[in-house]
Amino acid sequence: MTVRAVFFDWGHTLFDTAGSVEFVVDWTLRHGGVTDGPSAGADPADVRALWDHARRRSRTPEEIAKGRDKSAATHRECWLALWSELDSRWPGVAAALYEFETSAAGWTPYVDTEEVLRDLRARDIPVVIVSDVPFDLRPILAHHGLDGLVHSFVLSGEHGTIKPELELFRIALQTVGVEPDEVLMVGDNPANDGAAVEIGIRTLLLPAVPSGSPRGLWAVADLIDG
């Protein structure tokens, strides 16, 4: 297949929130955060269950329809609501977790992210990050030394539109001057990232993997090499 550009989703495609559960547990240790007095800290299994539940809810059509990724204020409001079960157990942790997950400290590249981005740079194939996010990803990529491997960023918060609306994909096409059939879109969400097929962009959807595992991004090179 001829690929002249690769579009990547960002969260849970290139980068992972691998440290969120540990952050919450550490926060409860430091703040003694239960409603009826200090504790020895949260049980990591309890935190994992609550955090996973919130993440699954965040991907439902009902939550996506709230348009949380179009503005920073709406994004914060929606995520604090999604983490309300955590906050009811450890008051104040939702706001702290939000600050963590919108900073460079809260996101880690998957172990194969840099290799694949460098491979695409060596092939002279531009990378565009097409992401539903209302905060700037550039400082996060720069923090990890990966900003120079990305041609451009097309972010929902900067354009007022989200996936599965199609405008972000169209903007990304214009950014690199390619046709839909010359692009590979890579993501993890069938509803959002998968919408790229509606305008003729071939799309690779990656299943979830445990934190710390390779993301499976080398499938991009396999498809390009055909």
Going by helix content, strand content and strand pairing, the class is: alpha/beta
State the total count of DSSP E strands: 7
Helix content: 40-55%
* Topology order in helix (H) and strand (E) letters: EEHHHHHHEHEHEHHEEH
Which whole number gives the mean pLDDT? 93
Notes on the protein architecture:
- The structure is a single chain.
- By secondary structure, the protein is an alpha/beta fold.
- The protein has 2 domains: 5-15 and 107-225, HAD superfamily/HAD-like (Rossmann fold, 3-Layer(aba) Sandwich), CATH 3.40.50.1000; 18-104, no CATH class.
- Helix content is 42%, strand content 12%.
- It is built from 11 helices and 7 strands.
- The protein has helices spanning 20-31, 44-58, 61-64, 72-82, 84-89, 93-101, 113-122, 138-143, 156-159, 167-176, 219-225; strands at 5-8, 15-16, 108-109, 127-131, 152-155, 183-187, 202-205.
- It has a 5-stranded parallel sheet. A two-stranded antiparallel sheet has the order 2-3.
- Strand 4 (127-131), helix 8 and strand 5 (152-155) form a beta-alpha-beta unit.
- Helix 1 crosses helix 2 and helix 1 (20-31) packs antiparallel against helix 6 (93-101).
- The longest helix is centred in the first third of the chain and has 15 residues, at 44-58.
- Residues 33-38 have low confidence and may be disordered.
How would you sum up this structure in a few lines?
This protein has 226 residues and is α/β, with parallel strands linked by helices. The protein is built from 11 helices and 7 strands. Strand 4, helix 8 and strand 5 form a beta-alpha-beta unit.
